[in-house]
Amino acid sequence: MLEDTVKKILQARVYEAARETPITPAPFLSRRLNNQVLIKREDLQPVFSFKIRGAYNRMAQLSDAQKAKGVIAASAGNHAQGLALAAKLMGVKAVIVMPRITPEIKVQAVRARGARVVLRGDAFSEALAHARELIEEHGYTYVPPFDDLDVIAGQGTVGMEILRQHAGRLDAIFVPVGGGGLIAGVAAYVKYLRPEIKVIGVEAEDSACLKAALEAGKRVTLKEVGVFAEGVAVAQIGEAPFAIMRDLVDEVITVNTDEMCAAVKDIFEDTRAVAETSGALSLAGLKKYVQQRGVEGQTLLCINSGANTNFDRLQHIAERTELGEQREAILAVTIPERPGSFKRFCKIIGRRMVTEFNYRYADPDQAHIFVGVQVKPGGEDREEVIRKLREADYPVEDLTDNELAKLHIRHLGGGRPRQRFDEQVYRFEFPERPGALMNFLTHLPADWNISLFHYRNHGAAYGRVLVGMQIPDGDRGHVEEHFDEIGYRYWKESDNVAYRLFMA
């Protein structure tokens, strides 16, 4: 299978639509990590993503009869744009079925490349089901985003270019993983020619379907998939990609939201390119690999797979970057409610910059402050700050890794309720579409009172919502049954220390 895949890569027709992208050195990051860091710039493709390679190569294999009837795909991301452009260049009709929650900027980008867009459903599964109905009705050919040998061969030309452009020492290649088409193609070509080079997959920790499959020895379906890195938000690794690369990938690294955001900043500082979060995923994995292994003096390459990000998301990415670099500590500190307390607190902090300070009077004796403090990367400096505060008899809670604190608490104002009452607090991911909130409220019993509500839009297909509810005693054992019916992802936060300190 390996030799056959390499032959298909060598024969792939991609350069009628795609371009050979450069490998860009990352000098600032290289000095910081004590390794030579290189970035393969797939963000420079005509559709700002590597997806044009696989889409065009798959279409190049179609018969004249198939081309005459047209092609179709269900996609809300880069594959939609790649297929739209490939079809336009070949003069073939293309239909793209997208979920209704797809951001308008992506819908317009697909239409601008000549494809007809059909909006259907609130999730990818519904869009895919409708695409299959249209195939039955019109005879379109479905072009999959990753689970196809010709698509894999097209993506594999990325690996072919890497070895041709960089003939010298190369210790590891870091590849972002969604459905597996890119890493299957890259791993096949690289391992066939230079098996000593490590091929390392990088996944978002809340959509790590390849890691789960390798651990199980077979493909598995994740129960839930995070949507922050929507370009790799896949619940199951593709069948064809997994068959090719299951024995070729050296390891898989998972990274979190903050680490991806920090990698977006790193790419910008070295190249002035603004990567999408899934595009910066591989660099986040490279940095984590260096940190965990302590490697120095190696040549490490990551693939910036795309730059199709919404401008609205940049605020959130910038906000989380300092945390991803471990340059900011988020702390909840209890100080005496009396004059001079803040001055004494700042004296203990020393010359470190206070990046954020949130406070509202709530108690005559104690004040709970939400504070951001600039620290040195690595974690030791953050521990030193906490140690000094505790030695000064300040109770401290470290909220640096607390999602509720970072997504909601730091943006909430207004203080606490004037009197105690029972409240259940949950955090949700809502689809960004008209009627999403009404759908949520419709599923709640009429006698449940909403006591807290905070919503944030990050320029993505999903928004983050924090909801507090007063629930009658008889319903408390069945709360999550109602939420399961709605189908939105949720987390119970009633016992979260950030909530208890600042909102309860």
Summed up:
This protein is 40% helix and 20% strand. With 504 residues, it is α/β, with parallel strands linked by helices. The chain has four domains: 2-50 and 148-318, Rossmann fold (3-Layer(aba) Sandwich), CATH 3.40.50.1100; 51-142, Rossmann fold (3-Layer(aba) Sandwich), CATH 3.40.50; 326-401, Biosynthetic Threonine Deaminase, Domain 3 (Biosynthetic Threonine Deaminase, domain 3, 3-Layer(aba) Sandwich), CATH 3.40.1020.10; 416-502, ACT domain (Alpha-Beta Plaits, 2-Layer Sandwich), CATH 3.30.70.260.
Beta fraction: 15-25%
Oligomeric state of the chains present here: single chain
Distance between the termini: 59 Å
The appropriate CATH architecture of the largest domain is 3-Layer(aba) Sandwich
- Rg from C-alpha positions? 25 Å
Low-confidence stretches: none
Under CATH, the topology of the largest domain can be stated as Rossmann fold
Cofactor: pyridoxal 5'-phosphate
EC number: 4.3.1.19
InterPro entries: ACT-like_dom_sf (IPR045865), Ser/Thr_Dehydratase (IPR050147), Ser/Thr_deHydtase_PyrdxlP-BS (IPR000634), TD_ACT-like (IPR001721), TD_ACT-like_sf (IPR038110), Thr_deHydtase_biosynth (IPR005787), TrpB-like_PALP (IPR001926), TrpB-like_PALP_sf (IPR036052)
Family: Belongs to the serine/threonine dehydratase family.
Description:
The chain is 40% helix and 20% strand. It has helices at residues 2-10, 27-33, 51-60, 64-69, 78-90, 104-112, 124-138, 149-165, 181-193, 209-216, 239-245, 257-271, 281-293, 314-324, 341-349, 380-391, 403-407, 436-442, 479-486, 497-502; strands at 23-25, 36-41, 71-74, 94-98, 116-119, 141-142, 172-176, 198-204, 251-255, 299-304, 328-336, 354-358, 366-374, 396-398, 424-431, 449-456, 462-470, 489-492. Strands 1-2-10-7-8-9 form a six-stranded mixed β-sheet, with helices on both faces. Strands 5-4-3-6 form a four-stranded parallel β-sheet, with helices on both faces. It has a four-stranded antiparallel β-sheet with strand order 12-13-11-14. The longest helix has 17 residues, at 149-165.
